[in-house]
UniProtKB/TrEMBL annotation:
Pfam family, one: Uma2
Boundaries of every Putative restriction endonuclease domain copy: 26-194
Gene3D superfamilies, per database record: tt1808, chain A
Annotated keywords: Endonuclease, Hydrolase, Nuclease
Lineage: Bacteria, Bacillati, Cyanobacteriota, Adonisia, Adonisia turfae
Highest taxon of the lineage: Bacteria
Coiled coil: none
Name recorded for this polypeptide: Uma2 family endonuclease
Keyword Hydrolase annotated: yes
InterPro entries noted in UniProt: Nuclease_put_TT1808, Restrct_endonuc-II-like, Uma2
Any one GO molecular-function label of the UniProt entry: endonuclease activity
Hydrolase keyword on record: yes
Length: 202
């Protein structure tokens, strides 16, 4: 009877914030495929970012955002495609990002090949949402929002539930800050979309 070779023991590696691990885009794709339970991102300079699964509060807020965006999308699917937080995008600057929610114009999505749609989407979404969790650095998220704008996004919301504050990013414009708003408008990018923030602030 042939015995199967012993399986290697899995070890966990803790990477302190001050230690940067750099990977190529090809290595990142392999890592992401092997670690589907983690939200991995990669900066334009190749630094790997490991985002652990969200806690309950962030999870329910993310669900509310995705559900509301999804309902608008179902009624307006000719305008584009909507995505949840598990979707990765290859930005023009070389970064690999996964917004908490996003949307891409129909003409941009339809221009992609079937292979491009299956993998990390090789473009920057027209609309992005980042939801700040308890452990998220505000300055890091703000830099990410500016990166989205620099790479082609037209509208972005940085939602901070702890402070009931929203930063609105628009292409070529100064950031607008709203304190404790009840709703957010998709403006002319997502016409008719209105995000109700009641459950986000709860």
């Amino acid at each position: 009877m042939v015995q199967a070779p012993p399986q290697p023991k899995l070890l966990s590696l803790y990477l302190p914030g001050e230690v940067a691990l750099k990977v190529t885009s090809e290595q990142f794709a392999v890592l992401a495929a092997a670690n589907r339970d983690l939200r991995l991102e990669r900066t334009a300079t190749g630094e790997l970012i490991v985002n652990p699964p969200t806690g309950g509060e962030s999870g329910k807020r993310n669900l509310s955002i995705s559900t509301q965006l999804g309902m608008w999308f179902e009624a307006n699917d000719t305008l584009g495609e909507a995505f949840d937080s598990s979707t990765g995008f290859d930005l023009p600057n070389g970064a690999n990002r996964s917004p908490d929610a996003s949307w891409v114009r129909r003409e941009c999505w339809d221009a992609l090949t079937p292979e491009q749609r299956e993998g990390f989407v090789p473009l920057c979404p027209d609309f992005v949402v980042e939801l700040r969790s308890k452990t998220d650095s505000l300055t890091v998220l703000q830099a990410k929002m500016l990166e989205y704008m620099d790479n082609g996004s037209q509208l972005g919301w940085l939602i901070d539930p702890k402070n009931k504050r929203v930063e609105i990013y628009r292409a070529g414009q100064a950031v607008e800050v709203l304190e404790n708003p009840d709703t957010l408008s998709g403006e002319d990018i997502l016409p008719g979309f209105m995000l109700i923030l009641k459950r986000i602030w709860a």
